[in-house]
Specification:
The chain is mainly α. It has a domain of 95 residues. Helices cover 59% and strands 6% of the residues. The chain is built from 14 helices and 3 strands. A 3-stranded antiparallel sheet has the order 2-1-3, with helices on one face. Helix 2 crosses helix 3, helix 5 packs across helix 7 and helix 10 crosses helix 11. The radius of gyration is 23 Å and the shape is globular. The termini are far apart.
């Protein structure tokens, strides 16, 4: 038997909340703590589930090839102690996939498209999936899911809506790069980039503002520590922007110092 490590508990522990009974228990404990202790809450939830099954069995709401999953509500963060989840329907196998396999498309390509598809389905239903969620659903490690997702994003020039991208964690550097590239190199309007990358306008504007602030201060020969003090950004975040600036800006544009510093405010 594989020993359970602390890292495994941290990674997968909250996965229990994706299922109906534990999710309801969590909700009652957070919102109605006066009901009682764990045993009382568990009994209360069991009675609610019995009533739900009597009124609306889940099998009547799901089509062949689909499943029910309890995903993170888009309005809460995964790290919040009172995070909320929402029951959604995800399509794991579709007729379109079967047709693609019949035509000779490889299963690996189908797998990446499936990851993209359920990310978009979850987002359309007001929720976000993490790579851990998708790993549990598809029976693969979250790191492998991340590789496939990133490959899909690079190939299609997009950012899939998921916990890591919209909550600015995980592989957010990739998203900064893509957003800044679309605006700085492709000369696209930021509102178009927001739609293409499944980000809010505010998130796109924040990325671009960070880029311009670091760029302006670098042109003034400020060190990363000075930039951190002036902007409140972490040294790690400044290094990310510095790498993007080196890639997207010509040496000449960085040496002239003619850019306005209005983004420093």
């Amino acid at each position: 038997m594989i020993p359970v490590t602390t890292d495994s508990k941290t990674r997968y522990g909250s996965g229990k909340e994706r299922f109906l009974e534990p999710a309801l228990v969590k909700f009652v404990e957070n919102e109605f703590p006066q009901i009682g202790g764990p045993l009382v809450v568990k009994l209360f939830v069991e009675k609610i589930l019995e009533k739900i099954d009597q009124i609306s069995p889940l099998k009547e709401r799901v089509k062949p090839g689909q499943m029910i999953w309890n995903a993170l509500d888009i309005n809460t963060r995964a790290s919040h102690p009172k995070r909320k989840t929402k029951s959604i329907v995800l399509t794991l196998v579709s007729e379109d996939e079967i047709k693609k396999l019949e035509s000779g498309k490889r299963m690996g390509e189908i797998s990446s498209e499936r990851i993209a598809g359920i990310c978009k389905e979850a987002y359309a239903q007001g929720t976000l999936l993490s790579m851990r969620d998708i790993g549990l659903i598809l029976g693969q490690h979250g790191a492998e899911i991340s590789k496939k997702r990133i490959a899909y994003e690079k190939k299609n020039g997009t950012v899939l809506p998921c916990v890591g991208s919209l909550h600015d964690s995980g592989t957010a550097t990739t998203h900064k790069m893509l957003i800044c590239k679309k605006v700085k190199l492709d000369r696209k309007d930021s509102s178009i980039v927001a739609r293409e990358t499944n980000h809010s306008q505010k998130s796109v504007d924040n990325y671009l503002q960070g880029y311009e602030r670091v760029k302006a201060l670098k042109e003034l020969n400020k060190s990363n520590m000075e930039i951190s003090f002036l902007t409140g950004m972490s040294p790690h975040l400044i290094s990310q922007y510095e790498n993007l600036i080196k890639e997207f800006e010509s040496p000449k544009s960085l040496s002239t110092g003619n850019h306005l510093t209005s983004h420093l405010a």
